[in-house]
What does this fold into?
Amino acid sequence: MYFHFPEFFALIHVYFAQQRYSLAVETLERCSKYFDEPDNMVLTIHFLSVYVAALHLAGKRELARTVAVRLLTLTEPEGYVRVYLDEGVPMKQVLQTLLNMPWDDEENTPPISRTYISTLLATFEQEEQKFAARGETPQSAGSREQEIQPSGEPGLTDSLSMRREMVETLSPQEQRVLRLLAAGRSNGEIASDLVVSINTIKAHVKKIYSKLHVSNRIAAIEVARTLHLL
It folds into this structure.
């Protein structure tokens, strides 16, 4: 199934900004099969980095460390750095915890280079020093703890604006179909409720997905709820 993944991750970042951390975790876990793919390492790494931040912010610290360990094993060979910086304070805190843990006393923990983690943490410090030199702070410059925005993707305000424009193009009937989708109604039940054929409902659903830039019911509902349409 196709996912417009930049839009999906932008939605997760909206949840972060709204401090709806548990919902961010639930959404990531529900859709993980579309992003955690061995054949697409770049997408997997991006997914895991956001997942680590979400888990940490939601208070699931042990699981956040476990996922971070996996992420580190994938990124260390290529020396990834930016993917960690993009997740800001939550990622930094997870890395600090990992660095201070007595790994030798833990079972089933993959070997990870302390040097790599130390390098990542040092880079975080360098970023903070750059902000300080400009009279800014990571928070005022767009700290990922409040406004997590991957490099090259639209910001939260731009993303929400774009989505509102898309929603405004929905016809009244499409809006009714969207509300029924959110209520958990099947295509057949929606067709019966609106007294139309099931093929007509399928056509409406397809248009809704296209206009919202999503590819399934879950994503459409999450976008609608984020914009307070439901």
